[in-house]
Design goal:
Length: 380
């Protein structure tokens, strides 16, 4: 009988697992279930203990690569619980961004078990102003990323791997995204990047090259840790950018990140939820080992299971995400229909698994999904 860790690694590496893994996704406080024993809600939150409490296979994410900047380079944030302002400073000048903070209360599940409580609200931030406001600002951004180095906390990762043991796999999160996604999500915004690629392409493209080099330094540092899997977040989809834009400005960076991971014997996983069907032909060029939180049409995406299998089978593992809305609505009927369709499409495809986005869902419903997947996904 193989262990849960061995089974997960077999699925991710293209071998033959004995059962389909099903894991909760608890990367941060926004991903916590709707209620937990009070002892699990004390700070600092222990996400491994929470994963063990909820159940399923363990895919435990750690964050241990720290950014280092020389003297004179910094990002400082000030503000309150509703509005924040960050200033990016380098010796040649500074840029600023402003974000609004919004809170979404946890749902009410009625009478909770004795000794349990709801987590705090889900925290969302929305940019009202990005760092980059015009083509001249990219010069400062290039200087900032060019000065950036990274350091990995290997000993801390090793301790977490010991804690998990054979119960599951530790995955190193926080991986640098493509420069295109970083600019759109964090530094310039979609509209600014689109305009500047047309009006000042040299400024944007030269900045992307320096950001990609910084990203490579991150992955070189990450590869020094004992983690076997490294994950980046690349939440681009075709509602934001065209497949051609993705191919030209995201794929080269992702491909280089994957090559660094593979050169050190690590697996490379990309978190991409949303409408990515038309990206799949280009993702083949990246040579990623897994797509994390792949979303089907009934889970707010547009990639059917047969389309995913045709594009990925034999090359990249698919980590399918359960519809978060059905989890929050406590609707086991919708969830059973989703799982039935998922298993019908997967068939005998063994390099596939299920990811459950806990985000304030009822633990009873989460466990219902786990039980259903384990009952159906047994291959012996």
């Amino acid at each position: 009988m193989i262990t849960s860790k061995e089974n997960l690694m077999a699925m991710l590496s293209g071998d033959s697992p004995s059962w389909m893994p099903v894991c909760v996704h608890i990367a941060n406080a926004n991903n916590l279930p709707g209620y937990l024993p009070c002892a699990l809600l004390t700070e600092p939150i222990d996400r491994l203990r929470i994963s063990e409490f909820v159940g399923g296979d363990i895919l435990y994410e750690v964050f241990s690569v720290k950014r280092r900047l020389p003297d004179g380079y910094s990002i400082n944030t000030e503000g309150d619980d509703k509005n924040r302002r960050s200033t990016l400073s380098i010796p040649a000048g500074s840029l600023s961004e402003e974000v609004r903070v919004r809170y979404l209360d946890s749902p009410d599940f009625g009478d909770m078990p004795q000794g349990h409580a709801k987590p705090g609200p889900i925290v969302n931030t929305v940019h009202s102003k990005f760092f980059v406001g015009g083509a001249d600002d990219y010069r400062l951004l290039r200087d900032y990323f060019g000065a950036m180095t990274f350091e990995a906390g290997s000993s801390a990762v090793g301790r977490e791997i010991e804690r998990v043991g054979e119960k599951g796999t530790v995955i190193l999160g926080g991986g640098q995204s493509s420069p295109l996604y970083s600019l759109i999500s964090s530094y310039a915004g979609l509209e600014q990047v689109t305009f500047d690629l047309f009006d000042a392409p040299d400024e944007v493209i030269s900045t992307m090259r320096i950001m990609q080099a910084a990203g490579c330094r991150w992955y070189e540092a990450a590869a020094q840790t004992p983690c076997e899997v490294i994950r980046c977040t690349e939440d681009l989809d075709t509602n934001l950018v065209s497949p051609d834009m993705f191919r030209e400005y995201a794929v080269p960076a992702l491909k280089e990140y994957a090559e660094i991971c593979h050169s050190h014997g690590k697996l490379f996983a990309i978190h991409m939820c949303g409408s990515i069907r038309d990206f799949l032909p280009h993702l083949a060029d990246v040579d990623a080992d897994a797509i994390h939180c792949l979303t089907t049409p009934d889970a707010m995406g547009n990639t059917s299971v047969p389309e995913a299998r045709e594009a990925l089978d034999g090359r990249t593992a698919a980590m399918f995400r359960v519809p978060a809305e059905a989890l929050l609505c406590d609707d086991k009927g919708i969830l059973d229909t989703f799982l039935g369709s998922l298993f019908e499409g997967i068939g005998d495809w063994r390099n596939a698994m299920v990811i459950i986005p806990c985000g304030r869902a009822n633990p009873k419903v989460i466990r219902h999904v786990i039980k259903s997947v384990h009952e159906r996904g047994r291959w012996g």
